[in-house]
Design brief:
4 copies of one chain form a homotetramer. By secondary structure, chain A is α/β, with parallel strands linked by helices. Chain A has 11 helices and 13 strands. The first copy, chain A, folds into 2 domains: 125 residues, 3-Layer(aba) Sandwich (Rossmann fold), CATH 3.40.50; 164 residues, Dihydrodipicolinate Reductase, domain 2 (2-Layer Sandwich). In chain A, the strands form 2 sheets. In chain A, strands 8-9-7-10-13-12-11 form a 7-stranded mixed sheet. Chains in contact: A-B, A-C, A-D, B-C, B-D, C-D.
Chain lengths: 346, 346, 346, 346
């Protein structure tokens, strides 16, 4: 039995970690920290968990947490995770950071985009970017995982096969991504009120979103080449899901069948990636509440463009589910353990 | 391993049966019939199931279905289930009808409200109304279960303790219920389009809804008295959930604490019923995707009224989940088998 | 041309006042105050208004506002309006308070339910409760109007004819009301986030909502009798609209036709009240964006209950539209001036 | 007073025509035809119109309609409008076709993409594509207007200034467009049910949507060059609105300020186009219920890409509102007549 703790359990990602771990057959949640709900039952903070999870939210004492845990999930605002990790590095426990602190190879890139200095730059070279479909082998032996951002997960999985196989012009890549508002978290804010989100769609942070350098870093490794995509995030009125519509120009014209064949082969051992048949494009509904990433294709022959549509649940495959998938790999469990339930269709 | 079949698998209730049974540890789905999707993979009809369920939708041949199944879930328009059951009565297999055909003690009441004649009235006295929290013992030995309607589930569970204990004036009972539109099924219709449901609330079939006699039948048994409630169903713009706000006049003034105590005692062995603390009223969000029924209370002292708020997921506790709970009981399994996952908070 | 100012223009009610007044043929907006957006264009606060309204939000200086205005709409948290009005009473300008400060005949009732002391109790006997369909004549000469609450508007209009005609048992009245979340305003709060409201329905403040004494006060006047209803507000996932489903026991059984006839007669001169035909119950969609109140009926004969369904747009007829209707009456204009546009069906 | 008729008044576009025309000061609706609601009051079909519009839906008799009308709006499935127009060409009345029949210069392109033969190809050279911001002068004298599609409106207005000024590489243009589901009309269909649209986003008809050739035709004229964009439509869970995020590569790097200046100049006389300031991207909420098109910009310097975000209400500026704007121009009225009301912010 793995003893797992969640530091920052009362945000939406924390809640999803608790929800999924509560039915994980090989894990026991031993600690859950919070800033705002100290002493409260997790079931009072998220009443959906009542009767299923018995857990009192505690104030953060990182030493206590680390001592009782085999693995710690850090679900905190950026900057905090690196500082906490520094405090407990000597304990040599497994850490999965759900935030941005351990996603970057370069301290400088992180510090430029996130505006804080990194508290633990010396470990960055040992840290693993936790996208199992790409880095499965490295994750097995990792001690610190930077769990990928939600947008990057949908985009990198959508592009990996064509980049590794050098099929597209890298300077042509655009990702137009549509996200549920849960990606903005559970903080009180006027702009995320029901009245301000319902019935409307908007773009934001065009070419300035903090996930941009993370996407570029990983795509560049896959392409063995410097990749700088144009990335436009949007908010659509829904609670879960990201759909990334990715555009790239093909070096040579090809068929949808060939592309589909390539992707099926590439993701053969990755049961959470489902490749759609010709003419089928995924909806976020299809992955709602599950750890799947569904990918479909179209070719605009006239323009020699490949259009890739990639759908995930942003709080599962884009956050908590992927974290648990990483944990499974780190502890030698089947990757799908605790993540087998299909999503909700309606 | 229980071999289960679903007759009518491509509606929303059918889909939920497949979804939940797909992770049930003691069940194997051996058949799934359909009218409109014969020969298609269930994962093409409901892409959320892809990669999790391998099942080809077949045309209905009830003999074939019965032969290979230990239990058959019938998820059909009213009238069809009784006729089908008649054909296969001699096989002596377990049947759970998700529709109205086996919910009534009286052939006459059924025929009056549903406008068809009953094909198998002779079994009605042996059939069990499948509300486990009330009829658990009878369900154990039942061969045919009439699975309760969604509204009745939320209302009967909300009222059972006060009726059995004779605490309220039965002629004062009103249930004002708010339902998700999934209760209307998956048929093409103008009135259920997104554009016609989104952003609006409406009442319908006031005091004429077909669940009214079902509610009255069961409440009357609990009260040992003729009960005729006023029942107003509403549609609210959501995909899952029913909230019933139930009003009744107390015979003697009492406290919320006493009511809560009574309900906790009454549902002590029923782990799917969660009784809220004083001042807490359930939201349908809290039961989203789960088999729970959450119940909260308020007392309007001036008017000597007890207000009971009862929340379920209409397609789980109000349909498929309850059906599986019944199956568990019929086969001697723990009632919660396959139904342990908490719902989604967001 | 009427010079109108809005004190508190950057909440949702303030925005609706600006929106509707911007096309009002006899009004000019001369002032709009704000706490959080001083110096900003109203079109930057609410971009829907860009190009239609030229108005810079100013800090509140009540003397300045009063001097340049014929009428002042106060859209402020309770307690503030009475204090402000006290400061400017001598100017003898028309005031319409969108909040609770001038809705009560009794200082004591107000102070008990709102928990603040009333700054200007001496005017309460001269103030008029601004429900035009009931108090049209008094509004004509009023200087200070207490604009009704949203729930009270839907409930009082729904009940006035039967109460004035003594047709129902007053102790039997229950209103189960379903509101859009815009009623909670534009303040930052976790509980009103899209993620917390979308896809769910909940009851709140059962029999404790501050609109309860306001409803009871007005219903008691109509019934010429002490009325204490049971009132349960709910939040449903929509941006506009209130549906009140009102239950009352008939003194003598009657027909829906008779009730409809009575209501049509009662509201003959009130063009914003639309009485539905038999068997038709209004949806909030039907009044979306308009100043209408739609009312429909059902009779539960067995229980001798009349069920009244009343629908309004909470920010129009439940707030800003009604305020402007009051203004029209106070200035001798046709009641419908500036309020003629039908609502949006989708 | 202009006598206007609407052929096909009981779809969503027809309803919007009636809604907006009902407050148009210079128009009287003299006829409204329907297939499914013959003899019914329009207020029974769309109850939002009750008490505001008195109009009985009639069966289509095109001769009768033409005789009593100065202008006829045709809101019909493609193929029907051309045939009807042929019947009444000799009457020489003004016709605005809301469908696709008169949007194409080339009979062949129309017939290829719509799969029907054109009944009236001989008038195509006289017909005017009714996008006032581009073709205002021609519209003045037109007898037959092909009212633009919703997606094309948002995309062409977004691109016209840069194309006319030859600032972008035309082969680089991509429009990723997000639409409300009302664009799919009011027909009964499973795929447009609330349960199938709510909470999810999807792409459809990638590079195959019938608006593609319409977009290309108009952009080619503006660019004086053959333009073939990549066009991906999406459905997002809302009732009104289209957001087009348009990507194109700049021939020479420029600043957002310069682009904004160019657009403000280009649309100086077009009061329905609102150009956003630097760093502001429009939301569909900002144009909800109004005839505005809001356009904002970002420049991805690294990739030399200009990103244009264009927002309209698909049933107003994308259909009925634009039709009425065209009518105003055809009859010498100020373009904004009847279209002055700001949209709803919430």
């Amino acid at each position: 039995m793995i003893s797992a703790s969640i530091v920052g359990a009362t945000g939406y990602v924390g809640e999803e970690l608790v929800r999924i771990l509560s039915t994980h057959p090989d894990t026991k949640i031993v600690g859950a920290t919070t800033q705002n709900y100290v002493g409260q039952d997790i079931g009072d903070v998220f009443p959906s968990l009542r009767g299923r999870v018995n857990l009192v939210c505690e104030e953060l004492n990182i030493q206590n947490i680390v001592k009782k845990s085999d693995i710690i999930f850090l679900s905190l605002p950026h900057g905090h995770s690196a500082a906490l990790t520094k405090e407990v590095l000597s304990y040599n426990k497994k850490i999965i950071d759900m935030g941005a602190d351990f996603r970057f190879d370069s301290k400088e890139v992180y510090e430029k985009w996130y505006g804080v200095s990194h508290a633990l730059p010396e470990v960055l070279s040992d840290v693993v970017y936790g996208l199992p479909e790409i880095n499965r082998e490295k994750i097995k032996d990792a001690n610190i995982i930077g769990n990928p951002g939600c947008y990057p997960t949908s985009i990198i999985l959508g592009l990996a096969p064509v980049l590794e196989n050098n099929l597209v012009e890298t300077e042509s890549i655009i990702s137009d991504s549509k996200s549920a508002i849960s990606g903005a978290g559970r903080g009180a804010s006027v702009s995320n009120l029901f009245t301000e989100i319902s019935g409307s769609v908007k773009a934001y942070n065009i070419s300035k979103h903090r996930h941009t350098p993370e996407i570029n870093q990983e795509l560049s490794k896959l392409a063995k080449n410097d990749v700088h995509i144009t990335f436009t995030p949007h908010v659509v009125p829904m609670s879960r899901g990201i759909l990334s519509t990715i555009y790239c120009r093909l070096k040579n014209i090809t068929t949808a069948e060939d592309v589909i064949g390539l992707y099926k082969e590439y993701y053969r051992g990755s049961s959470f990636v489902r490749i759609m048949n010709k003419g089928v494009y995924p909806e976020t509904r299809w992955v709602y509440g599950s750890n799947f990433c569904d990918i479909g294709f179209e070719i605009d022959e006239y323009n020699k463009r490949l259009i890739i549509v990639s759908a995930i649940d942003n709080v599962v495959k884009g956050a908590a589910g992927q974290g648990i998938q990483n944990m499974n790999i780190m502890f030698g469990l089947p990757e799908t353990t605790g993540l087998e339930a299909p999503g909700l269709y309606i």
